[in-house]
Specification:
alpha+beta; 113 residues; Double Stranded RNA Binding Domain; 4 strands; single chain; 4-stranded antiparallel sheet; 28% strand
Length: 113
């Protein structure tokens, strides 16, 4: 399993009477009627984001440190949320990366330039 841990900011939205969780590092947001529901959805959203990014060979922004996030959002509640991605997804991506690099190396030679 590959683990991703990101700080998230928890808000209470008075207008909708629900809780929102924001992952500012990756622009992912979730919400729930209770803190527990918002947290569970945040874990699901983070997992889905990381898994999709891996499958699409997309860059995943590194997380800001917990302390830096607390300093920036000092009046809010900061949580640490983790996502565990199955090794088969990570292995698939590793194989894809190797194939892409191999194909580029085979097809492109400096003498062709």
């Amino acid at each position: 399993m590959k683990q991703f841990i990101y700080p998230a900011v928890l808000y209470y939205d008075k207008e909708s009477e629900s809780y929102a969780v924001a992952f500012y590092d990756i622009n992912v947001y979730s919400e729930g009627e209770t803190v527990e529901e918002a947290f569970v959805k945040a874990k699901e959203f983070l997992s889905a984001y990381c898994e999709c990014a891996i499958k699409l060979n997309d860059y995943i922004n590194p997380p800001t440190t917990y302390l830096d996030t607390v300093k920036k959002y000092k009046d809010e509640i900061v949580l640490l949320v983790d996502a565990q991605i199955d090794d088969t997804v990570v292995e698939l991506q590793d194989k894809t990366d190797d194939n892409i690099v191999f194909d580029i190396d085979e097809d492109f030679k400096m003498s062709d330039v």
